[in-house]
Amino acid sequence: MPALVRSNSFIFPDLDFTLRRQFNKANFRPFQREIIQAALDGNDVFVQAATSFGKSLCFQLPAVVDQGITIVVSPLLSLMMNQVEALRAADIDASSLNSNTPLPEKDRIMNDLKTGHPRTRLLYVTPELCAQDRFRQRMTVVYEQKELARVVIDEAHCISEWGHDFRKDFKRLAWFRETFPDVPIMCLTATANSQVRDDILSVLGLDADPQRLKTFTMTAHRPNLHFEIRYTRDEDDSRLEDFLKWIRGVYKRRALSERKSELDAVGERVDNVSGIIYTISRDECESLASQLRDSGIGAQPFHAKLSKDTKERVLGNWVSNKPGYDIIVATTAFGMGIDKNNVRFVVHWRMPKSFEGYYQEAGRAGRDGNAAYCFLYYSREDRNRVSSLIVRDRSLPGNNFEARAKSLRALATYCETVNDCRHKLICSYFGEKDTPVCDYACDFHKDSADLQRRFLKGLASEEWVSTQSEEGQYQVDWDD
Ligand SMILES: Nc1ncnc2c1ncn2[C@@H]1O[C@H](COP(=O)(O)OP(=O)(O)OP(=O)(O)O)[C@@H](O)[C@H]1O
Predict the structure, then answer these.
(1) For the chain, which terminus, N or C, has the lower number of CB atoms within 10 Å?
(2) Prediction ipTM score
(3) What residues does ligand 1 touch, defined as CB less than 6 Å away?
(4) What is the distance between the alpha carbons of residues 425 and 254, in angstroms, rounded to a whole number?
(5) DSSP conformation class of 236
(6) Measuring from atom 24 of ligand 1, which residue has the nearest CA?
């Protein structure tokens, strides 16, 4: 099917004007204009670009200038909240529809869709909702009125069983292309390898007409992030002291008179160093936050089991830099899409379950383009614990054990590599051939001798760890 040519008054939208007026941004970032134009020309669009590239604008701006409604499928409620609030603040008619939407709001949105000519420009929905009959009927009405402008699938790697965050309801999104064959689809992700990419296109049926598909694959490289592995072992677990020493050092430097005056001038506290610490289990998330608070650090837990109100309060206070909310100690319930521009560090307290998850989470740091730190505390005991979780979940439906094991192995190799640049290792994991520039922004480039020394000194021996594993020492039942 040829690309749709839109013959309406929106054919010559002034993109620069809309960027300034509605989105309050002076210029497009590289490739944003091209992506937006490809979408407005009626193509299917696949965008793979680094975390914080500015992917959201690539579908939000077309939604504002184009006729009709844009449906944005997103896996995370917190991400929807974040985006809908920002759009509304910019006077854009955006809403979200999910299991948390209050009934009156749900009715309002459904009635809006029922007219066939909705006022809503962007509607954020979960993949689960897209499978519901009532929603599908409403979509059909809108489509028949030629008001369904585009379907956007954010965090599209969730479609693929080869991706790190597979969600089975994402597969059912194939319904959109089957039912509305001429409605363009846009997919966005920061973390996909070529297998995941092919899978996304095939599940959604976008590979059926290559002429209609425009693909933008950009580097995963984030030059302002400093990557470092900190080695540890059960027998000598000094993570907490190590972290406290580091963060107190940061506070101390900020308290020096010249720096302090700069901070005073912009109304910033010395300890307003915004960060995220990722843990693997809910229990550790709670206990670590409390240990940090006992040490005088403003830390709060965030995990799936907290009430909606608590989550909103914690997120809101963290985003607005309130004292006592400088550091979020989170499970992976807090991740994809979180957009706070001044996150200065992301610490992985334990090895995450996948390479992609690690990079997504690290990608929350430094979104303002300034330097930010990403540490991962790695121990071989944790590696074996995480692998025991992956083995435990092996037979769950939709679980692609092979892909998970492969990703975890790649992450362990990355952690144990001490003779190469972290940025290079990351980009090559995502299939990039070019060597990214690293300006002393990783432990290898900063001090390779120190890295070697820490590696040799810090880890338990493989022999020891494997004996302990055989005795079942690392079988855990962590809950996130
Ligand atoms: N042209 C631009 N000029 C200035 N800021 C921009 C521009 N485009 C996007 N941004 C800002 O960049 C930040 C990151 O954008 P966004 O949240 O869309 O990233 P993303 O690519 O979706 O990243 P992730 O995959 O990590 O969610 C946002 O704060 C956004 O407002």
Answers:
(1) N
(2) 0.98
(3) 25, 27-29, 32, 49, 51-57, 190, 337, 339, 341, 363, 367
(4) 32
(5) G
(6) 51
